[in-house]
Amino acid sequence: MPSVKIPRKSTDFDMTPFVDVAFLILTFFILATKFKPPERITVKTPKSVSADKLKEQDGMIVSFDSAGKVFLNITVLKAENRDILYSEIISSVNAAKKLGLTDAEKQAFKNEPLVGVPFSQLKARLGGEKVPETGIPVDSTNNELAQWVASANDVFRSHTDMKLQPNYLIKGDNSAAFPSFKGVIDAFRINEVFKFQLVTDPRGVPEGTELFKNPRRAAE
Amino acid sequence: MAQMDSGGDSGHKKGPGVKKAKKQSTRVDMTPMVDLGFLLITFFIYTTTMSTPNTTKLNMPKKEQDETKQMEVVKSGLMTILLGENNVYYYEGELLADGSNFMTSSFPTPEAPGIRKVIQDKRAQVIAAHVHNDACKKIWDSNDEKTGVADEVACLDRDLVVVIKPDVVAKYGRAVDILDEMNINGVQRYAIIDITPQEQTVLELARQRNGQ
Q1: Residue B34 and residue A19: Cβ atoms within 8 Å?
Q2: What is the ipTM of this complex?
Q3: Which of A113, B45, B77, B94 has the most CB atoms around it within 10 Å of its CB?
Q4: Which three-class secondary structure state does DSSP give residue A162?
């Protein structure tokens, strides 16, 4: 019997469309990626139903991590204002606490306005020494954050021409103990600041609740 | 491989033993390119942060020394929520001396509503007991179109005041959860206040009773 010949088909196939799609996706991700700025501390924020987006604003971001270490970051949107504001803030703190900072140390603050050490170690830290970041003390007896807030607020308010509307963002870690949050709030309350924005991750509104039925009213 | 054919017999083009120039395929092996492409895709997928963080508004009360300026609260509409590490405790109105109105609840989970149900019930109770009076007029006047609520409804829960008192062992994330419950359940008036020593004592007793 003559055997049936099966035509041998090549296993090669045209990969071009496949590659096209792959590179299309690649292009999308490259364009959509906004790299996170490297963070000195890791904070896992709690979730909330709030729909307000976090905006880049002038003001202060107080972060505290799971161990309750408090960090302060002062943000100024306009690059041309930064230099003058940062130098006035650090000078104000320097004068109030008699830290004896040199110009070079002030410059170090201007380059990276993120503080995570007590005043006693600020000079060494800005001088470039490797100081462990123990956070800004916020105890009721020694609330150093209050001084930072006072200085920053004074400087923000004195520059009426820049039209600054400082915002107070609090970025806390889920598992931080409540007293560190209270210490942060107290630092602001001493300085007559009562409105805050807590940084949270979005989550869905549970069904059947008041907010679910009437989202507009709750947004007020 | 490409080799130069430098034989002496390059003179005659056609004849036996002369190799034909190989026709090179224009096809390129795309596998390494695809590999690299997918490697990059994987990298970018991992590093991309799609969800941007949100913010929750928090207004703290001023420390008012002048008693006449302090906010008046109707006792029947007052609820105090105390936050422990894993449990929520609450009482309505004032804490009785024997602590008999001190209740234990739990943080809301998808399985059990816990404190959410308590807040909802309290709100429903306050709304049911509401009687319109002059104070309602003020709310009606300030109630504009944006809120999408009829005037008669806007003042219904005005007596409801929730006071949140986190204990020292409470976690920040839990406190935010409870603040979020206020938004979820439409509680208009709430505040975070320090825990009192009496409440601390009762909280400690409740914790021991629960065997924690």
Answers
A1: yes
A2: 0.77
A3: B77
A4: helix
